[in-house]
Design goal:
The chain is α/β, with parallel strands linked by helices and 336 residues long. The protein has eight helices and ten strands. The chain has helices spanning 27-35, 60-78, 130-134, 182-194, 221-236, 270-282, 307-313, 317-335, and strands at 10-16, 39-45, 92-96, 114-118, 138-141, 168-175, 195-204, 241-247, 262-266, 289-293. The strands form two sheets. A five-stranded parallel beta sheet has the order 3-2-1-4-5. A five-stranded parallel beta sheet has the order 8-7-6-9-10, with helices on one face. Helix 5 (221-236) links the parallel strand 7 and strand 8 (241-247). Helix 1 (27-35) packs parallel to helix 2, helix 2 (60-78) runs antiparallel to helix 4 and helix 4 crosses helix 5 (221-236).
Length: 336
């Protein structure tokens, strides 16, 4: 029987950013460390000598594929403790040090109990991160295969990715963000990575959610607003200006704000994106570049475009609420 999470350490896992963001050799590591940690922060470190291993040089598709596969491995590592909760990604985060220019506020006071690194890894830590890591006991894992370790030489320009990393001053997205799960985290991370100055996140108001399945398990609006803001500022991109606000329709600020250049959506919200584009055209607002992320499940990085499969297999707040509702009913029956 696996140990309960209360007996497992809170862990910082330090990983060199893989070549071409290929996570294959890292997946067993992510699975193992996730299964042996109560909370886990996976911190990807840029290589200062290799542009192919810096988050600034990533492509949208490569970064999306990396994040989804990484989170699936982390979720699978927690599956054995499903009865404890958190199987949707609560307490498991993937972050990129290349998006930080400072230590996120409060990160050093979160009670981390160990750092995990690899034997022989020479990837340097950012100066602001070194004091935190040096204060922790370090567990060393066997060295990664050489193809996953940072290159010791700078690649020639011809070997750099042909797809330029996109960037927009202001990016917008929206959603319910109930019981923040791995799918939300991929969405928010990619949106923050795209935005160079400001990220606008519309969070659906409580009044629009009364008809949701298992509505009693919905988190109140203030909790959902805080979860989004905290994840972005304490985990993903501390320097980014954030506007996390309630929305009462599909449009939110995209209906009126001209200073937005990009919109991030999931496959299942494509219809809402079309409505936004139509309204902005009618109001002579600048068009938005749309970026779409795949829908993930706890066992698959991409559940495809089939509508029925999307509904059945996707990682969703509805599934989390259903689980919480079932647990509440079991608790009530046990008290009778």
């Amino acid at each position: 029987m696996p140990p309960t999470s209360s007996l497992l350490p809170r862990t910082l896992l330090l990983l060199p950013l893989p070549v071409s963001l290929s996570p294959t050799s890292l997946l067993p590591v992510l699975h193992h460390v996730s299964s042996t940690s109560s909370s886990l922060l996976v911190l990807l470190l840029d290589s200062p000598t290799s542009p192919t291993q810096q988050i600034a040089h990533a492509s949208w598709h490569a970064l999306q594929a990396f994040l989804t596969r990484a989170y699936v491995a982390l979720l699978q590592g927690r599956e054995r403790r499903r009865e404890e909760g958190g199987w949707w990604g609560d307490g498991v985060d993937v972050c990129f040090a290349g998006l930080w220019d400072m230590l996120p506020q409060g990160l050093g006071e979160e009670g981390w109990e160990r750092a995990v690194n690899f034997e022989g890894d020479t990837t340097p830590l950012p100066p602001f991160l070194s004091p935190l890591v040096s204060s922790l006991p370090i567990t060393y894992l066997p060295a990664l295969p050489s193809s996953s370790s940072p290159s010791q030489t700078t690649p020639s320009p011809a070997s750099l990715p042909s797809e330029t990393a996109p960037s927009h001053p202001v990016v917008a997205l929206g959603g319910t963000f109930d019981h923040l799960h791995a799918g939300h985290k991929v969405l928010l991370t990619l949106a923050a990575w795209l935005a160079s100055r400001k990220l606008i996140v519309g969070v659906t108001d409580d009044a629009l959610l009364a008809s949701k399945s298992h509505a009693p398990q919905l988190e109140p609006l203030p909790s959902r607003l805080y979860a989004v803001s905290s994840f972005l500022s304490r985990r993903i991109k501390p320097s980014l200006s954030l506007d996390v606000l309630p929305i009462s329709d599909v449009y939110g600020p995209t209906a009126t704000e001209s200073d937005i250049q990009a919109l991030v959506i999931s496959k299942e919200t494509a219809a809402g994106a079309e409505a936004i584009h139509k309204l902005r055209t009618e109001r002579n607002l600048p068009p938005l570049k749309t970026y779409t992320i795949d829908v993930i499940s706890s066992a698959d990085a991409d559940v495809g475009g089939d509508a029925k499969r999307l509904k059945q297999a996707k990682m969703s707040s509805t599934a989390v609420r259903a689980w919480l509702s079932a647990r509440a009913q079991e608790g009530g029956q046990g008290e009778q």
